[in-house]
Each structure stands twice: as C-alpha cells, then as structure tokens.
Amino acid sequence: MEQKPLELILARNFLTSLSTPAFLVDESGALIFYNEAAGALLGISFEESGRMPAAEWGRAVGPVGDDGEPMPIEEIPTTKALRRGRPAHGRFTVRSVRGDKYDIEASALPIVAEGGQEGAMIFFWPQSEGARNGG
Amino acid sequence: MKLKVWGARGSIPAPGPEMNRYGGNTSCVELELSDGSTLIIDAGTGIRSLGVGIARHLPKVNILLTHLHLDHIQGLMFFAPCFRSESEITIWGPSSPEASLEERIARYISAPLSPVEVRELPCDVNFRDTPPSEWEIGPATIRAEAVTHRGPTLGYRITDGDATLTYISDHEPGLGAPLESLEPEWISGYDLAQNSDLLIHDCQYSDEEYPDHVGWGHSRLTDTLTFARRVNARRLLLFHHDPLHSDEFLDRFGESAQEGWSDLGGPDGAVEMAAETQEIEIAPAKVAAART
Question: What CA–CA distance (Å, rounded) separates A93 from A30?
Fold first, then answer.
C-alpha cells in the first residue's frame, strides 16, 4: 500500500493520543482511521472495522438529521471541509453498531499540505452522558 | 558509493577531549559517487574540515540539506569552496510556503549573525527549494521525502547503480506511533528507507533519556533499531549523537545497540555508531554477499 503523506501520519499519531473521539479521512472522504474514543462511541474499533469509503461509513454510522433521515451529503461537516477546504461544524445523530444513537456536535478541519488537500480531521462531542462514556 | 563522516553530532558542536573519538562536529557526510563526483549531505560544522580538503579540487558541489536547524547549516559560512569564485555550489533543501530556501538560509548568513551576506559569497551559488521529489545528480538518483521532525525536514535516499544509502539524520518515527506493529504505510520514512544498503538514522537518546524529550524530533535507541528492522536496512549507522554523550557513554550506547539489534533478529555486525573520519563503502547486497 502506498506510503501515507507525512501530514496524515502525524494526524493519526495525534488523534491516537486524544480522548476526544475523532476520525481521519483522506482527500476522497474515505475513513482511514479513528481513535479509541471514537471506537468506544461506535461500538467497534478501527482495527476491527478497517478503512471505509465515504459512502460505506456514512451508511454504517450516519449521520442522520433531526428527522431521522440521512443528512444530505453536502450538509455533513466532513464534506464541507473537503470540498471547500474550510472548517465546518454541525450537529447530528450517529449510530453505533449496537444500534444506539448519539446526538453529537462535530467539527471538521481540513488538512492542507504544501501539495494540496490531504484530508480532514473530524472531532466529535457527544451531547449525552451515555455517549460520552461510550455506552 | 563511498561515504565519509565529517560530523556525527547533533544539536550543537561538542568539542572536548572526552568527545575526541566520536567527534564533536555537527552533521555532515560526504558521498563519493561511482563517477568520482561528490555529494555532501548536511552542512553542520563538519563541513568546514571537508571544505578545506576539496576547495581546490571540486569546482562543482551539490549540498543536500535535510532541514535548516542550525546544527545542519552552521558550517556553510565556513565552507571554503563558498569563497572561491571558481566554485559552483547548488544547495538543495526543504521547500516552505513561508519563504524561499535562499531567504531562510540568508537569515543566518547575514547581519548580525554573520559578517558576510549570501549575496557577497564569491562562488556561484544557487538554491533549490526541494519538495518531496526525485531527481538525478550525476549517476545518482536522489529521492527526498518529508519525515517526522520539528519543522520542514527531509530524508534522502540516494541510489547509485545497485547501491542505496538512506540518510535520515533528524527523525522521530516513534512519536505517538507503535513502530513494532504499525502498518508500514503509516510509518514516517518507511518507503524512503526500505531495503537500504546503508541507513544513517537519528539515534540521539537512550530509552531512559527519551521520556524527557518526547516530541523533540529525535529518536530513542529502541525506535531507531525497530525502524531499521522494519524497513529491512542491511546496515545501520547510528547518528546525531547528543552533545552530552561522551566517548565512554557512546561506547556503552553502541554495546546496547548491538544487544538490542540482536534481540530484534538483526544480523551481527550490521549496527555501528557514526564517528568523525569514519569511511564506509556502500556495497549493494549482491556484491556484499559475493564477498563473504
């Protein structure tokens, strides 16, 4: 597999060290890593789930809007960060593999290297105590 | 290719009788290519002695800088060919969105830090901002990749014929990363260093010292050995010695390195401590095997 850009390597190392749930996506929106805290929220570790294309992780975990329907892709902070190269923030609901739903706020930050956009980091803040404890 | 170490020390020059065997000059190595031409990697204080020897013999010089920390450029102003009008010097170094390579180096070679300005150097000097890329110099293919350190920093892979040297003088691949188990594509410098005949790599700290220096951009012994084993380097030269490490300390450090290397399944005799004036012939694997 092709060597990851240094910026993504450092981002993954950084997210690994955090207690805040976080995703790392590449420039195509594919989910290439998430940390233990995010795994606790989702009910499955990254080591178990592995890399997922954007459409696949969208189907697996959401997000869904207030009406319970999948959010339009253009409204998802990750999409905004990747397409516009700008930070984006939003509130929505995600699902765990156990079927639990969590209301969260998410901030997506694009990772832009000298050669162009490499991906984005997405940080999640669960809105309920249960979600914060990953249960 | 033939390599000579002119400076193996990191951070700051470390002269003194207790440093004589491994040397106190900061990072600089000279590489003689198969056609007799010379590449210089890093311009720490070691380049001063190198320059004294070559000033009259080498009108064209290529200098590859890994990064612009002072211990890697401090010798530039004392590099004799810079003061000869016949010299043509090309300096390659990491690109930055902040300023050109020349502008960044000129911060050092300018008042009040220097009595001369870059533009006053008698030689014909040109600066090449180098993004991660690959190009040719003489018979060699040079590949530069960004590596984990503080600030824009390159590692270099130099291939001449079948022989390959990878030089990563300042590197902390284990920062936040479990090197022994991480997938290769997620290891800084992995692709660059893979299957090198000689890997010159940062090994500034012992495992005991490292907890006080996490994030400083330098590697501890275990991580350097693990990295070298993961990339299948045939030979490893431990580099960028800490300025506090005396000859006696480095002797013991080298013994620990041998033990650690052996514990990781590395072949005997493949790990050495870099020392000033050390000369190494970099032979490709098939030639080395034929000689044994």
Answer: 19
